[in-house]
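Entry 14. Structure prediction run on the chain below.
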Amino acid sequence: MIKNVVFDFGCVLTDLDKQRCVDAFNAIGAQNVSRYVDECKQEDLFHDLETGLISVEEFCEEVRRKAPLCRATNQEICQAWDSLLAGVPQRRLEKLLEVGRNHRVLLLSNTNAIHWKKAVECYFTDEEHTPEDYFERCFLSYEMHTVKPDSEIFLRMMREAAVNAAETLFIDDSKANCMAAERLGITTLNVSHGDEWLDEIDNILMTNGR
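Output returned:
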């Protein structure tokens, strides 16, 4: 019986545009940093930002250190990194609200302060809605200082939100993250793109009905 639905953010709710982000970093003279994005490397400065080990200001300083030709301001660097996010389509927002009418909806994301600020201001806030309308709780790696697929991030989420693993569906684009959740007894849906869960979630929730 599924009572809780936990969503990832990147590639599940928001689409990502890697090439646009690479181009944006190149445009501010940060080619050494754009290679991280192009090769999907989550290490060094990006990992430290995602786990909250460095601040946004320290991240920007590290970008300029790694790319000595980059003279961009902190705001320009944040804008370049934000260009990875391609937005949350309205159909997914509407489905979140629909799922939330009968289930607890939570977010569990490996993300950073720059991207989450953009998401809150541009995707989950409008004249009618705030993030609280979509998610009961948001569990963010940079605030928790741990990332998926580490079991600790799942255990903390379940403990802090009083979530029972056997009553929980977790949706993520990473197979490793889903496998980590499954080892804890959580039902998972591993998707390759953001619209895939739209087609499958109703069947899963009906099969595991309240």
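DSSP finds twelve helices and seven strands in the chain.
Filed with the rest of this week's runs.
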